[in-house]
Structures are given as structure tokens and as C-alpha cells.
Structure prediction request, 220 residues.
Amino acid sequence: MGLSWNDRRLERRVKPGDGKPLKPFRWWQMTRRSLLSIALPVGGGGGLSATYTVEVKHGGDPESGVVRARLYRDGLCEAESKLPARFPVPGGTIEVRRSEVGMRRCHFVADDGSETRLVPDPRSAEGRRMNFAREHPGASALIGAVSVVLLLIGVGLNLLQAAQPISEIPAIAESLGTFESPLRLPVWLNVTLGFGAALGATERAMRMRYHWLLDSGAGT
Prediction:
């Protein structure tokens, strides 16, 4: 099966890496840097494998501010790309995407179409969230459900608040009439609910969960 136009476009954006070694993860980088790895067989069998690691610095490069993904093979930078990224690797590709609040996708897609999510560094936000889910599955599920509720409330409020000015556009008002939002929330409650929605989106990004409607802050 051939590559789509978009897949070819993403692969053309991949540039050679500078060969620099991967720096260790530090605790203060927990929300600013993501590291995810996978071991892949190389050399046509024989039990040989290489560890591929994806690094994303969410604040962007210091010089340009552009957020990039860097691919390391056995600790040395082999390639880099703007996001979204699609790195060719032995047996398939590694696909990387992010939203405005964190990681959205980081998967190895094999040539047969099967997918495997890369494993986050245990010291990163994604790694700590994964360990929490493993050790406390019940609490993890509850937190995940609360995140969805917070996002649903945020989406609902945004739709209600956007409907009124849209309905006042003359062409729409003449054909459908105007809509008056039934909600008149105080500023402090709007701010609180907005903050809750942001927390919910961040929590879902730590688990690399994404839905086009709920996680509407998605960017690259």
C-alpha cells in the first residue's frame, strides 16, 4: 500500500540529526519535555535491536521557538522534524503529534499497520501518569472520567457563548432568528470552569488521549 500525499509530505520534512547524545531527563523538565522510547529489531534478525527515543521540548527551540521532535537511536540524535512528524525506522514509522497542552500521539506504526505506543520516561509527566494508572487503576479511571466531564462542560459553555454572536450575523438572524444564551455566569465561575477544562485537557495529554471535539486546544 503506497503512502498518502500527507505521509510523503511529513517524511520530506525530516532532516538529519546532529549526532549529539541524548541528555538525561531532569525532574524540573517534567511538564516541559517529553521522552518516549521503543526497542526495534534491526539488521534483518539475529536478535539485534536498537532503542529509538523521541524527544519533544514543549517550549520550542530557544532560538526559533519552533516545537520539534528529535529522534535518537541508541542515545544519539539521528533525525529531527517539525510537528507533526513521521520518522521512517526499521519495520515502519514513528508518528508524533502534540496539542497545545502536551503530547497527542507518539506511536510506532509497523509496515503491516499495527501500532505500538512508545513508552514514556518514568520521570516525565506521561511516565508518572502511566505509573499512577498501573498502581491505582480505580483512582486513575475516576480522574480520567472527571477530566472528560470538565471538558464537556467547557465545550458546552463555549458553544452557548459562541451561539449568540453568531446568530446576530444579519444573514443568519434574518433566516433563523437570534439566539439568546440562557446562561449568565459570573466572571469568577467562567474563569474557574475554564481552568478546570485546561486541567482536564492536560491530564488527557499526559495519557495521550485526544478527541477532536473535547480536546479542542489541539495545535500541531
In short: Residues 135-213 form one domain. Residues 137-167 form the longest helix (31 residues). The radius of gyration is 21 Å. Strands lie at 15-16, 33-41, 49-57, 68-73, 76-82, 85-89, 92-99, 102-110, 115-117, 119-120.
